[in-house]
Amino acid sequence: MLCAAGGVVSGQSLAGRWVGSVQIPEFSLPLVIDFARDNAGEWVGSAILPGRGIKGAELREIKVQGGTVSFAIPRALGGLTLRGRMSGDALQGEMNQAGNAAPFQLRREGEAQYEPPRRSTSIRKEMEGEWKGSYELLGYPRQVTLKLANEASGAAKADLVIVGKRVNQIPVDLVILDGDFLLLESGATQITLELRHRGSGLFRGTFVQGPFEAEVELRRGER
Amino acid sequence: MSVQRVCALLLVLAVHLPAQNMFRGGEQRTGVLRAQAPRQFHRVKWRFATGDRVASSPVVAWGVLYFGSDDGNIYAVDASSGRQKWKRATGGPVPATPAVVNGTVYAGSYDGKFYALDAASGAVRWKFSTEGERRFEGKGLHGWQPRKQTFPDPFDTFLSSPVVVNGVVYFGSGDGHLYALDAATGDAKWKFQTGDVIHASPAYANGTLFFGSWDSYFYAVDTASGKEKWRYHAGEDPVIHNQQGFQSSPAVVDGVVYTGCRDSNLYALDAATGKEKWKFFNGGSWVITSPAVVNGKVIFGTSDTSLFHVADAATGKELVKKQTKAYLFSSPVVAGDVVLVGVLNGTLEARDLETGELLWAFHTETSKRNAGWALTSERKINGPMLYPSGWREAGPAGAHRQFSNGAIFSTPLVHEGVVFVGSNDGFLYAIE
Fold it and tell me: Which ipTM value was assigned to this complex?
């Protein structure tokens, strides 16, 4: 039986900071993993890949069975899965990426410095509903329709549609309100909307996609 | 058929089929070789080691292969044995394909000089200094950041290969000029200025040179006067400079010029007027490969979409489309009923000319080692491992890792049933 919430397996705890590397052919990939338990006693974790621009990537599907540990890092290098065996302060096994497999070795180095993933926040009531606007990129106009709502969990969700030469439904992963600043992020498209609520039915801000930036203005549509 | 008739037929073929002493088989750059490629892979006959990447494509004359290496040398290697006959050092990498005419080897180098060497000994007959080589570059190139930073383009992998016609050698340069030099003395006859780097190789037909520049124009220039006959304006990309410029070398057949472009089109232009006859759009994917033209068909490949295309030469209508596993920068050549093309995942593919079906594939040893997981387990380009970031040196460094994995940029050559091709692992391979 998998003991995802068990915490201690065979007298060993997974908790801590684990530091080591993956031995990819002709290349050593440094890896830092933090395992901790959340308030419900479930295993949570985050990953750092030094030199790869990855800090605090969320661990998913953490499973512990006997001395075997497996987990995934979906937002690192196109998706990583690791499966290994823990023995005291050593954890070693195999990492998979894009169908390739290579051995990894990690050693525990002190307490976990777990970094919780960013989560969507709630938004203010007057921000809910439909917003419409446009921006211009490379000489072409784009029409934007944004629908914002708070879900039962308290976190906001966003439906974003951008119409240029074709209709693009943009999957939004994060909606974060900080004061009057509203941030929307889409990991799949690398699109970010950084908006400031100006009151009286107006958002102004910036559309960003990689090196492309454009000013955008959204006005209240249907509630 | 009598022996005499066979001999006569062979003589006719020898006269009418292109030679193999210049890039793409000859001055019209049709990509059609005077040879039959094997329809089955048997073995690597030999491989010749150089000190760096071999993006140059081999040519052959009198049983000797000539090619350049990024180790700075121009090589002459016996085609039968794979033994070096001579090497001649230049002052920079040589990712250009030589031309061999009348006992002289002509090739440019990244040192900004153009060399004429004795084909038998490698001795320098003359060398000519251009205004200097450089790679195409742009601010925020390919979306790399910072946006105001100028990046040299690591995908600008080749130098212009010369065409030699009627005692004059023509080639493009990173200084933006197309040069015409006396082939015997190296004296300049004229130079034609464009707005940016010329690393595509000029093609020749009926007193006219055809070539593209990274300034987004394709040119037709009179060989006698060096004057422009016409120019064609292709796509531009003023923000990230990704969708612009001619890196593909043209083919000229029956009054039509065929050329790929980084604006993701393959163009068919009227050779007399420059008027567009048709264009084949590839959805944002570069056409770096130089098209091969045979039997009313145009054969070319794409980069990001990694497609092998055969289109009708008259209409541009697609006839065959096959998926390869990685970018195509190497140009397809037709050798009998086989099409050969290199792939950036370190594969040499042989395809049936009629159907486009894969006949056989050869993988370089370096690519099989898959250093740094540059490839997925399916031998596709492993983008997340290569390009984890678009900032500062990450883009060029990712391209370096991608190219260092035994990638094949070189265009294959077939001679006496043996396939010769260079690889970025530093070897020239002989495959039969």
Answer: 0.88
